């Protein structure tokens, strides 16, 4: 006697009361399709808006800044990851003098060996302190590395082809600021103001994973800030009335303070900030030098990274002091060289 299988597939039970039901969610393809449909439907007003002189100026400045800066940013990020991952932090401790007073200027000059954005200098400075380097020297290195490395100086030379003295001015001003801040921390800093860094970046991972993790992190962060900076520079050129900018630019005090605050707010990667500064051609070379010196040392993302690595008590003291010293030194160097 044969038995016939009369079982049927049981439908899934309905969701319990209060449980969220899985509804349809648009994916990237659907979103792209919707955007394309909207572009087709509104192509006339879009094309009319795109032909406006202000928008054309905005697009020209934005594309020019991003196109010029991107090769330096990518090369700097990759080279920074190579050095940060494959050069042991103990190497820096071995090459520094044992006396802290001498270690500070040597560490500042050592910033030349770390091409890359300022995002990489904070974890490296933390690693130096964990390896026994005096905090004053590690902080000097943290400030100097994003501004003194060859990638940034080369980008500055490309951005200011008619003003080669800007490269020398940026190098000297950044070196002096980093050294002065290291000595100030050595003289006035207190151990209870700084929280020791907890652990190194990418601890426990292989070198390849650490390398690509560093590249991804710096590319996303630096690239995002580059786009924001380019958009801000383009907006200043296209939207803000030229008379307003010229009024600020014509006032030596306002131009310096304005570009210093702009550098803090924009938080542009050091490989790209020279191209943004070059686009602000109505401002003096001295005020743009302030922009280039302040940006890699004091900005919003750096403040957050320093607070997360060394503690908020450290960041609220170190960042404002660096801001003031950077403005003062940049103005003095600008007056001398320009």
From TrEMBL:
- Residue stretches in coiled coil: none
What membrane topology does the UniProt entry give? Answer: Multi-pass membrane protein
Pfam family of this protein, just one? ArsP_1
Q: Where are the transmembrane segments?
A: 27-46, 58-86, 106-129, 136-160, 166-186, 225-247, 253-277, 289-308, 314-337
> In the UniProt record, which is one GO cellular component term?
plasma membrane
Q: Does the keyword ATP-binding apply?
A: no
Could you identify this protein by its name?
A: Permease
Organism, scientific name:
Virgisporangium aliadipatigenens
């Amino acid at each position: 006697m044969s038995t016939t299988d009369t079982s049927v597939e049981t439908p899934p039970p309905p969701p319990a009361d209060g449980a969220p039901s899985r509804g349809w969610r648009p994916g990237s393809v659907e979103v792209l399709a919707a955007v394309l449909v909207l572009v087709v439907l509104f192509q006339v007003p879009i094309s009319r808006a795109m032909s406006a002189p202000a928008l054309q100026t905005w697009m020209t400045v934005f594309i020019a800044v991003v196109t010029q800066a991107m090769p330096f940013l990518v090369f700097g990020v990759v080279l920074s990851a190579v050095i940060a991952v494959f050069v042991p932090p103990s190497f820096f401790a071995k090459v520094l003098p044992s006396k802290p007073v001498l270690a500070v200027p040597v560490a500042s000059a050592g910033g030349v060996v770390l091409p890359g954005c300022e995002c990489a200098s904070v974890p490296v400075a933390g690693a130096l302190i964990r390896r026994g380097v005096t905090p004053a020297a590690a902080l000097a290195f943290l400030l100097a590395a994003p501004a003194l490395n060859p990638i940034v100086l080369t980008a500055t030379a490309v951005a200011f082809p008619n003003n080669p003295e800007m490269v020398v001015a940026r190098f000297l001003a950044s070196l002096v600021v980093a050294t002065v801040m290291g000595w100030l921390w050595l003289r006035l800093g207190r151990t209870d103001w700084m929280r020791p860094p907890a652990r190194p970046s990418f601890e426990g991972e292989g070198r390849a994973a650490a390398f690509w993790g560093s590249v991804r992190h710096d590319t996303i962060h630096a690239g995002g800030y580059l786009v924001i900076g380019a958009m801000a520079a383009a907006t200043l050129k296209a939207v803000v009335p030229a008379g307003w900018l010229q009024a600020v630019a014509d006032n030596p005090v306002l131009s310096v303070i304005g570009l210093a605050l702009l550098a803090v707010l924009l938080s542009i990667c050091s490989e790209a900030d020279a191209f943004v500064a070059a686009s602000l051609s109505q401002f003096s070379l001295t005020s743009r030098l302030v922009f280039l010196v302040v940006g890699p040392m004091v900005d919003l993302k750096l403040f957050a990274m320093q607070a997360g690595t060394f503690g908020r008590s450290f960041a609220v003291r170190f960042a404002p002091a660096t801001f003031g010293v950077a403005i003062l030194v940049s103005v003095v160097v600008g007056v001398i060289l320009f």
